[in-house]
Amino acid sequence: xxxxxxxxxxxxxxVKFFGEESGCDKYVxxxxxxxxxxxxxxxxxxxxxxxxxxxxxxxxxxxxxxLLNCKNVAINYSNIVHERWNERSxxxxxxxxxxxxxxxxx
Length: 106
Prior knowledge:
By secondary structure, the chain is an alpha+beta fold. It is built from 3 helices and 4 strands; from the N terminus they run ααββαββ. It has 2 domains: 1-32; 40-106, no CATH class.
């Protein structure tokens, strides 16, 4: 009986501190940094003329895996529409099980 409790406790610790939902302070995420940076699926949104501060200018431009890829999709889009790159021009929406979970930038 004691061994079963020990195994359950160790599994809990593994999931809590090393699993997919172990948390990441760098991105203020409930998911692990590795998951956020490399494994998560993202919808990519781009704001045309972000300096105008008009939220109606946001546009879905694609989906990708990994946070750096998300930023690269946004940079490529800014080149296509001939807009000067601005770090505020994009947002990556982390998707899990079809739901929008968190927003990030690389």
